[in-house]
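Hi, here's the filled form for the chain we discussed.

Project: internal
Contact: R.S.
Residues: 113
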Amino acid sequence: MRKVLFFMLAMLFTFIFSCGSSEDSIVGTWKPVEYYFAGEKQDDSYLQKTTLQFLKDGTGETTVNGMKQTGTYTVDGNTVTLKTKYGPITYQLEGDTLKIDNPATKATYKKVK
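And the returned structure, exactly as it came back:
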């Protein structure tokens, strides 16, 4: 019985420590694979000038069609909030995608590095 209990605890700790947190998985550069602004699908040139970047130090940057906003971000479960001087921007982490869906913008991002 002790061997089984020890094995189960060992497996539990292995599972816990092998899983990264949402905060770890958000760090990096993200590019949109689709982007709608005011209901209109944006073309490839718009997508090429649009990125999200989250650093380990809690800072982030969004560049939309070449215009940058910087701020700090927080992660609460699967919700990522980038706080900029113009207000907060909220994203949802869904597997390997990051999504934004608000009245003006609907976009899906994939991590590139």
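Let me know if anything looks off before we file it.
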